[in-house]
Amino acid sequence: MRLRVTGVVQGVGFRPFVHRLATSLDLHGTVRNDAAGVLIDVFGPAEVLDEFVRRVAIDAPPLASVTGVAVVPDDSALAVADGFRIIASDDAATAAAAITALPPDVAVCDECLAEMRDPADRRYRYPFVTCTQCGPRFTITRHLPYDRPTTTMAGFVLCPACQAEYDDPTDRRYHAQPLACPTCGPHLTLHTADGVVAERDDALRGAQRLIDDGRIVAVKGIGGYHLVCDATNATAVATLRARKGRGAKPFAVLVADRAPLAEVAAVSATEQSALVSPQRPIVLLRRTPGAAGWPELVAPGAADVGVMLPSSPVQHLLLDGLGTQVVVCTSGNVADEPIVTDDGDALRRLREIADAWLTNDRPIHSACDDSIVRARGPMMVPLRRARGFTPLPVPLASDGRAVLAMGGDLKGSLCLAVGRQAFMSQHLGDHGQLATYRAARQAARQLVDLLCTTPAAVAIDAHPGYLSARLGRELAGEWGVPVVEVQHHHAHVVSVMAEHGVHGPVIGVAFDGTGYGPDGTIWGGEIMLATAASVTRVAHLKAIPLPGGDAAIEHPARTALAHLWAAGVEWDPHLAAVAAVAPADRQVLRTQLERGVHTVATSSMGRLFDAVAALAGVRQRVDYEAQAAIELEAVLDPLATGAYTFPLADAAGAVDCAPVIRAVAADALAGTPAGTISARFHSALVSHVVHQVRTSACDTSAGTGGTVVVLSGGVFQNAWLADACEAVLVREGCTVLTHRLVPTNDGGLALGQAVIARALLGGNG
């Protein structure tokens, strides 16, 4: 019989597994990769073939994910093979029958680590040790099928010892495409501003000395460069912040093991599992109250600290010889640009930041930053989906036309929906930088090339000024396909629906900072009735004029003054937000608000968080997106009592924030602690959500027998708010759906856009 195996079946040791299985059953035939997955021609007694088919599906390698094993009708005469062999891939094959998924990059396995640390092994201290169960995949693959000639390892010719492993069916490196050793593989080089200073192990030791001396080293990883310094050295961390223009935005840290975490965070079983998983994401851990030292250096004012364990051999080796066990490990980029991958580019673009560069000669084809996850109860949810997860697909409930979705301008990520799968790109950074624009174009082309698919349409955000939308129009023009505009918050809601295979209608709660509304205002505090093809705005925060538009996002104090003005509250200088704005600037703001000059109407929940944070004295100016909201959550006092109250919606569905603003201002003037104000505000939001769900009378049972509520948008990165809303709604008898596979922020937007575009286009294709 001829078998077609689909799913994540390339780059995971699947062909060697099939070879071993067939040989153990005394079957004959061949196995090969092609653009659609794995193709097996196998000969033997019928009852043995049945056993073979069963075990192909259930005994697959750990990194594989088999979605189908189908018998392929074939009228051609198949030559009976002598024994069982792995044969060359069929480059001419297309993905007409199915789409195969390229596996993501995963952490080095324990067996490879043991070899790397064994002085008697020929790969002792070799920073590129790998096998069929670990190492780079997505970042080194140029196109499918996944074979060495189609990867960036093509230029490294295997030495006799490696070739023997590659050809030996009993070896775990049998057909391992990134296979290498010190004799035939990539090697390290250390550069300083003065030129090359060291090679191989000397380069590694030189980088360690520099880090121990308080210097900043750009280290080339699997998916790009990281900037590394001693996290316990206040001067080194401050220097990195200053050179990168980072402000107070938290850094992630790389720790040698979990020991350094004991005194700074309580790590749950769910978080421990994520830390040691093959994906090795950055895990946001709740800091122990009062924990000082490196957590405050790397994440000032934040309730969480981002931590990851080593994922690549070079990270293990780097930490093994350092005087510290905790280093800052942040993306090697400038501002919000994509992570740097090219060696020459790194020397140029990171010259003002790094003191040295630990590089290597293995090319990176696709940039891929570190993923970020956070625990919500027993599950981990992504805040940034990249290394370890990209390009694994999100399964879809139905088929449809191939659609490329461009996402938004913040936390850029693309999605290509093909068949019943949605392939998300890696995190790309924020648009507005030319480098991000180019990276998004490259990522779009890569998705199309990997999946052998030309989109039938391109979905974009409806915001007229988004650069992601501009790029989408350009690509649609090049392919000669239509463009589908999708409202921002509709896409947020449908992205959750797509994850859960729900068609709707649902009540969607979409809270974020910025999203363009059809009325030309900036939305962000939305309650919607939605299906994939339709959306109705049921309720929303009453819009207030925001002076300076987007410029006000950097100044929560100004947003607070706008909310006070809209609520009819005097600008009392005793309020922290008022005192933070100079008297002359206050007059300018008042004139803008009274005359409606240079203001933008917004119903944004994110801006309401900013205003409350400023009034409570938490944050008047921000260094990074959502800083005020993050710090407002961080100070929340769980023992505080009382709650503010949002009024009922008016006839147009608008909910006036004025009563809440007046209550916050009164508490602040009375000297109420910021933690109490935060708790009362968060409790008010939970009550607001529950009330709006109750009053949105509609059938959203979707077969469950009750109301289905979807929570999405960047505001629901707030773990306290998300957990509290879900808990109360469940007690009310609702089915609550939240993100599990893609980020709740704009990083998940493209999934919703793709599904909406399919629904609007109709038909299959």
Fold and architecture overview:
The protein has 765 residues and is an alpha/beta fold. Among the domains are: 2-86, 2-Layer Sandwich (Alpha-Beta Plaits), CATH 3.30.70.100; 188-360, DHBP synthase, CATH 3.90.870.30; 388-491 and 744-754, Nucleotidyltransferase, domain 5; 544-695, Tetracycline Repressor, domain 2 (Orthogonal Bundle). It is built from 22 helices and 30 strands. The protein has an eleven-stranded mixed beta sheet, sandwiched between helices. Strands 17-20-19-18-21-22 form a six-stranded mixed beta sheet, with helices on both faces. Helix 13 (488-500) crosses helix 22 (749-761), helix 14 (556-567) crosses helix 19 and helix 19 runs antiparallel to helix 20. The two termini are 29 Å apart. Residues 92-98 have low confidence and may be disordered.
Please supply descriptive tags for the structure shown above.
765 residues, alpha/beta, Alpha-Beta Plaits, DHBP synthase, Nucleotidyltransferase, domain 5, eleven-stranded mixed β-sheet, six-stranded mixed β-sheet, 30 strands, 20% strand, globular
Strand order of the largest sheet: 7-6-14-8-9-13-10-12-11-15-16
Rounded to the nearest angstrom, the radius of gyration is 27 Å
Low-confidence runs of at least 5 consecutive residues: 92-98
Distance between the termini: 29 Å
Proportion of beta-strand residues:
15-25%
